[in-house]
UniProtKB/TrEMBL annotation:
CDD domains, A to Z: PDDEXK_lambda_exonuclease-like
InterPro entries the UniProt entry points to: NF-kappa-B_Signaling_Reg, PDDEXK-like_dom_sf, Restrct_endonuc-II-like, YqaJ_viral_recombinase
SUPFAM superfamilies associated with the record: Restriction endonuclease-like
Source taxon at top rank: Bacteria
Domain YqaJ viral recombinase residue range list: 28-173
Protein name in UniProt: YqaJ viral recombinase family protein
Pfam families: YqaJ
Amino acid sequence: MFDFTHLPTITLPNGALAFQGLEQGTHEWLQVRAGVATASRFKDVLTQPQSKADKDAGKPSKTSLTYAYELAGEILTGEPAEGFSTVHTRRGQELEPQLRADYEMLADTDVQQVGFVKRDRFGASPDGLVGSDGLVEFKTHLPKLLIPMLLDGEFPEEHKAQTQGQLWVTGRQWVDLCAYYPGLPLFKVRAYRDEEFIAVLEQRLAAFDALVSDTVARIQAYGQPVA
C-alpha cells in the first residue's frame, strides 16, 4: 500500500495532515492521493442519478460509481490511476508561481504552499494556505469562460464543491478563488464556509467512502489477483 511516512508534514488544528515540499502533479503526489477522495472530485460524489424512479432512490449516480471504482482500483493495485494533462493544465502550472507572487502582493500576505492535505480518507490540494484561516485556489480559464466570470463578479457555482470541500478538509474559514488568462484581468472572489452545504457534503462523502470500502472488500473476496 502507499507509504508516505517519510514525507514532512504539519498537523492542522482540525487534525488534518498537510504535506509540505510535495509538488503537485509529480508521481509522489499521485501516490499520496491514491485511494483518497479528493476535493477536485467532490462534485462527482455529489451528482445524483438522472432517473427519478423510486427504484433508483438512494443509489449512487453513474459518475459517482465510476469514481468509486477508480479509487477502489488504486487501493487494490497499489498504483494511482492514469491521469491526463492538457495544454490548459500545463499553462496553469507554468503561470502559477507568478500568479502566487501577484496574489501575495495584492492581498499583502504570504502564501504557504502545501502539496496535499489529508483528512482521514479524504483530501485536497489547495494552492496555498493564507494566514491562519484562509486558502487560495488558482484557476486557468479560457477567455470565453473567464470573461463571463469577470462581468458577473459572483463566485462560480462550478467551483463550489471543490472549494467548500477544501475548507472542510483543512478546517479553514474562507477561500480566495483567483481565475486568470494571459492578457485578461485577474478574477478574484472570496467564499466563506457554507455550513449547510458542508453538512450535506459530509453525509454524501460518508456514504461514498462506504461504497469504496464495500467495493474493495467484494473484489478481495472474488479470488486471487492476476500475477
